[in-house]
Amino acid sequence: MRITCPVCGERSVAEFAYEGDATLPRPALDASAEDWCVAVYERENPRGPHAEYWQHAQGCRSWLKVERDTLTHAILGVTLLGRFSGRTGE
Predict the structure, then answer these.
(1) I need a surface site. Which of 42, 59, 64, 84 has the fewest CB within 10 A?
(2) Rounded distance, CA 33 to CA 49, Å?
(3) The Cα angle at residue 20 between residues 14 and 23, in degrees rounded to 5
């Protein structure tokens, strides 16, 4: 699988770290351990197009929102998050 980082261009997935489901709200920092346990471990295993957070950990370290088909692993879109948000990978 290859992901197109909006800053660095197309790269192997080995350079990226999966950082979680982008469709779920995260608990507040002061939420209970039980709330965090539910958010981290009790989740759906979606089939088809899905939004995920990834970090280009071995590259520019940018945070990305990746739209990926979980059946085919096709990358449907990549959006840069944070300070330079709005840039997209092609």
Answers:
(1) 42
(2) 30
(3) 130
- Cα–Cα distance measured from residue 74 to residue 70, given in angstroms and rounded to the nearest whole number: 8
Find residue 12's DSSP bridge partners: 2
Render pLDDT for 3-32 as a digit per residue (tens, 0 to 9).
999 999 999 999 999 998 999 888 999 999
What pTM does this model have? 0.82
Per-residue three-class SS string for 57-89: CCCCCCEEEEEEECCCCCEEEEEECHHHCCCEE
Distance between CA atoms of 16 and 22, rounded to whole angstroms? 16
Q: Please tell me the distance from the alpha carbon of residue 33 to that of residue 68, in angstroms, as a whole number.
A: 30
Contact by Cβ (8 Å): 56, 5: yes
